[in-house]
């Protein structure tokens, strides 16, 4: 059973999200937006190292292999780690819209336990946009991309200006991110609705 809160039901005036013309082509890997991101960064030793690909429309797929550092119960993935994997996958959708947004609400159903060593096959789609609010949904399957659903989530992302990060982040990390020689990554981290 899944009892979604009304906050995750798009309002009547919501519209279908539109893929940005410059969004990565379907099948293309969407690289990390920040090296030290727990979800996708190469520089986060215990992170998820999620690899995400653009899909058709406003959809992405991602894979994440559960490591020993991700346990909650012995040999099983921690629920918060699985929620992080869903959050990261959902967050990447906003790059296809070319909108900077943060998670406002994330509702997660844990349907099956996920053992260490499992590859979680994630799929996410942005389903509606209303002003600054982006409604999206995701599933995580085990045993293959068509395997049984182990986790699923609905989310509400809120569009923000780049100032959100400038005003709230620690200066040391912001300066280091801005100095990244990979200018595409810097653009992804700090660009506002090009
Ligand atoms: C160092 C460099 C790195 C920087 C990276 C920068 C960018 C990244 C670029 C690309 C990203 C690519 C991939 C991303 C992958 C990552 C995924 C992870 C994403 C996260 O993990 S991100 C961290 C967790 N996240 C937060 O850290 C948010 C904390 N929070 C706030 O900062 C504020 O809370 C905020 C901004 C959310 C809203 O504040 P606000 O003042 O701007 O707006 P306001 O409150 O007016 O809300 C406007 C309308 O949204 C509704 N609304 C708001 N919140 C709601 C809620 N919770 N539930 C239901 N409805 C909600 C209101 O009801 C109103 O609705 P209405 O318009 O209908 O009245």
TrEMBL record:
Keywords: Apoptosis, Cell membrane, Cell projection, Cytoplasm, Fatty acid metabolism, Hydrolase, Lipid metabolism, Membrane, Transit peptide. It comes from the Bacteria. Residues 1-25 are annotated as: Disordered. Its main location: membrane. It is found in: Cell projection, Ruffle membrane; Cytoplasm; Membrane. The keyword Transit peptide applies. It catalyses: octanoyl-CoA + H2O = octanoate + CoA + H(+); hexadecanoyl-CoA + H2O = hexadecanoate + CoA + H(+); (5Z,8Z,11Z,14Z)-eicosatetraenoyl-CoA + H2O = (5Z,8Z,11Z,14Z)-eicosatetraenoate + CoA + H(+); (9Z)-octadecenoyl-CoA + H2O = (9Z)-octadecenoate + CoA + H(+). It is a peripheral membrane protein. The keyword Secreted does not apply. Residues 75-135 form the Thioesterase domain. Its EC number is 3.1.2.2. Transmembrane segments: none annotated. InterPro entries: HotDog_dom_sf, THEM4/THEM5_acyl-CoA_thioest, Thioestr_dom. It is an enzyme of class 3 (hydrolase). Belongs to the THEM4/THEM5 thioesterase family. PANTHER family: ACYL-COENZYME A THIOESTERASE THEM4. This is Acyl-coenzyme A thioesterase THEM4. It comes from Streptomyces varsoviensis.
């Amino acid at each position: 059973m899944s009892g979604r809160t009304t906050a995750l039901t798009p309002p009547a005036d919501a519209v279908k999200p539109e893929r940005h013309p410059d969004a990565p082509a379907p099948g293309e890997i969407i690289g990390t937006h920040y090296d030290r991101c727990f979800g996708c960064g190469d520089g986060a030793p215990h992170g998820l190292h999620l690899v995400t690909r653009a899909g058709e429309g406003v959809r992405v797929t991602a894979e994440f292999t559960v490591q020993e550092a991700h346990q909650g119960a012995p040999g099983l993935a921690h629920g918060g780690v699985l929620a992080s994997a869903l959050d990261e996958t959902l967050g990447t959708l906003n790059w296809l819209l070319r909108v900077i947004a943060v998670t406002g609400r994330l509702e997660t159903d844990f349907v099956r336990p996920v053992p260490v060593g499992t590859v979680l096959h994630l799929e996410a789609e942005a389903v509606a946009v209303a002003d600054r609010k982006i409604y999206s949904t995701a599933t995580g399957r085990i045993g293959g991309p068509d395997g049984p659903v182990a986790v699923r989530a609905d989310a509400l992302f809120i569009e923000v200006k780049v100032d959100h990060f400038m005003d709230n982040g620690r200066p040391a990390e912001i300066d280091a991110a801005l100095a990244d020689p990979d200018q595409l990554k810097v653009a992804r981290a700090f660009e506002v609705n090009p």
